Structure formats: structure tokens, C-alpha cells
Amino acid sequence: LIGLLVGVILAGCSMEGRFSKSDLGIIRTNPEEILKIYTIETEEETTVLRNISTDLSEKVLFGKDYSLLAERMIRTVSDTAVGGVGLAAPQIGINRRIVVVQRFDKEGEPFEAYPNITIVDHSSETKKGAEGCLSVPGERYDVNRFTSVRISYFDINKKEMVTETIDGFTAVIFQHEVDHLDGIIYTDRVLM
Ligand code: ZN
User: Fold this and answer.
1) What are phi and psi of 77, to 5 degrees?
2) Centroid of ligand 1 to alpha carbon of 187 (angstroms)
3) Distance (Å, rounded) from C-alpha 151 to C-alpha 18?
4) Rounded-to-integer distance, Cα 179 and Cα 187, Å
5) How far, in Å, CA of 27 to CA of 6, rounded?
6) Which of 35, 124, 171, 184 could pair with 179 in a Cys bridge, judged by C-beta atoms 3.0 to 4.6 Å apart?
7) How far is the CA of 185 from the centre of ligand 1 (A)?
8) Burial (CB count <10 Å: 0-12, 13-18, 19+), residue 48
9) Distance from the CA of 180 to the center of ligand 1, in angstroms?
């Protein structure tokens, strides 16, 4: 019995921080195409959008499935037919803590991927602004967001967790996308 329990616990641990079979199916299928975006229009996709996402291990983040996923997420959100400014992994059916954000605060306004991201601090000041979401087609509502946030994420180049302070519209995008990782859709925060 003890042997069996140890086996079960080890099996549980070995899955921690790895892509599931379903995740890998999404990542590896038709890699030249853009990813399908999940919306609140179906119950099945809403369930994925409402799930809490989990971190990936460092080993996985240095692997080719992660780099393909990050590249495909960037290609999807920046596709002219999609025209988004940010995308979170649950929006393409993967409950892992990865977001892609267009950095309007950087030269050339590049799209960048942020794995294992959390918001660790924020300004006391908030500002109201209109938002939309690729998972809530055709809608726009006003939401209050912090004017500045401090994010923590794994930097692939530096090979370590880093923190960074983000201001302005880019900070709004980070708040919207990180909400997705906690199962929150911006319509939950709409001002009445
Ligand atoms: Zn969204």
C-alpha cells in the first residue's frame, strides 16, 4: 500500500508544471495556422476560460513546445483578422500562466510572451477606460484599472524570475490578461 501511495504521489508530482496531453494537442496541431480563440459563446469553452491556470516548470519553459506555443500565440493575436493587443493561454484552450502583450511602452510596440506571470503590486490610483476581449466578441465596456502594476514572470533570456513596473495603457493590458489566468473575464469588473 505504501509503495502504491508513493507511486501515486510521484506520478502527481511529475505532472506538475508540464503541459497536459490536451495542451500538447493544441500546441502541435497545424502549427502554421493561427490558434482557435475560445469564447463565452459555448459552455465548454467558458469552462476553460473560468479555470485557474497553473505555472510551467523551468524545464518546460526551455523546451520546444513552449517556444512554439509562445510564437503561435504572438502570431495569432497580431494576425490582422484577429487584431488584438493581448492574449492569455486560456483563451486558446490552455490553462497555463502565459500571456502575450503588445508593449506600447517599447520602441516598435512588439508583442512579447510572459510565462509564470503574476501581478505582485499596484498603484493606489485607478483610471476608467473602455475594454474589449477576443473571448467576448462585439462588446466593449468601461472598467477601472490600476494606472501602474508590478509584474513578476520568468525571463527566458535571463533564466530567472524577474519583476518589472508597467505604466499606462500597457499596464491595463497586463491586468486584463493576467485576470484571464485567474478565470476572471473583464465583464466581471464592468462599472454599473
Ligand atoms: Zn480578454
Assistant:
1) -70, -30
2) 9
3) 23
4) 11
5) 31
6) 184
7) 6
8) buried
9) 7
Backbone φ and ψ of 58, nearest 5°: -60, -40
CA pair distance 153, 163, nearest whole angstrom: 7
Catalytic residues: 177
CA-wise closest residue to 115 among 138, 93, 99:
99
Residue type at 189?
R
| Cβ neighbours of 27 (radius 10 Å) | 21
Question: How many Å lie between the centroid of ligand 1 and the Cα of residue 167?
Answer: 19
Question: Ligand 1 (ion): which residues have CB within 5 A?
Answer: 133
pLDDT in tens, 128-174: 999 999 999 999 999 999 999 999 999 999 999 999 999 999 999 99
Composition of the chain by helix, strand, coil, percent to 5: 35, 30, 35
